[in-house]
Amino acid sequence: MTQPDQRSPAAGRGPAADDVVVRPADPEPWVVVEEKPGFDGFLTVRLRRYRLPDGREVDWDVFSPALNAGVRAGVTVLPLTPEGTIVTVRMFRAGPDVVVTNLPGGLIDPGEEPAAAGRRELEEETGYTCESIEVVGWQWEGASSVYRKYLAIARGCRPDGQQSLDEYEDCVPVELTVDQFRAELRTPGAMTGIDSAYATLDHAGLL
Fold first, then answer.
1. Which residues are within 8 A (CB) of 134 and not within 5 positions of it... i.e. 6 or more apart?
2. pLDDT on residue 9
3. Contact, 123 vs 159, CB < 8 A?
4. pLDDT at residue 67 in the model
5. In 3-state terms, what secondary structure has residue 64?
6. Backbone φ and ψ of 35, nearest 5°
7. CA 119 to CA 104: how far, in whole Å?
């Protein structure tokens, strides 16, 4: 009698761990035909015309903070204290028009390394310094953004630095336990930058 293939998934249970799942091919990318200036403020908007794979053309808005000032990226930092708490900031955010919880971070100056920017933004927004900082990846700010947001984990964070806020920043540093931080993530509207928070928690092994 023929023995069943032990690697075959049971009916209705999905693929077994050692089965290879074949992904369908990606769609063809669009081609940039033209780019024109749009709105120029803290948020810079460019107007792009794309040619689709079928030959049609479409106009699309793409954006980035301070693009016309040469800024191409920013950084978000997950700051961990020696006791294992997470340093967050409470601040007002225009748009939602409420005070929310954020991880510290900000723009990377032209020519500045992401790790150095992470150290600088951490101290400027919270007054905390760190023993070490590791850049663990990056992600796009949004689906129509040309702005990269680097992700960093800072360890050994202590409030022994000097908070130095911009003119319109109002950051209040707050230490949260990992459970409290995860509760903030699960609360609708309580935080912004949730994608960065989950990604850095994952890299830190805290999910």
1. 115, 152, 153, 154, 155
2. 47
3. no
4. 86
5. strand
6. -140, 135
7. 10
**87 close to 175: Cβ distance less than 8 angstroms:** yes
User: What is the 3-class SS of 82-147, one letter each residue?
Assistant: CCCCEEEEEEEECCCCEEEEECCEEECCCCCCHHHHHHHHHHHHHCCECCEEEEEEEEECCCCECC
Beta strands in 8-83 (DSSP E): 31-40, 43-51, 57-65, 73-80
Question: From residue 161, how far is each of 3, 85, 120, 131, 135 by CA, in Å?
Answer: 68, 18, 10, 12, 21
d(CA 147, CA 139): 9
Give the Cα separation of 207 and 114 in Å (integer). 24
Tokens of residue 37, six digits: 């200036």
Structure tokens at 154: 């800072």
Span 27-86, pLDDT tens digits: 999 999 999 999 998 899 999 999 999 999 999 999 999 888 889 999 999 999 999 999
How far apart are alpha carbons 49 and 34 in whole angstroms?
A: 5
Residue 188 to residue 170: CA distance in whole angstroms: 22
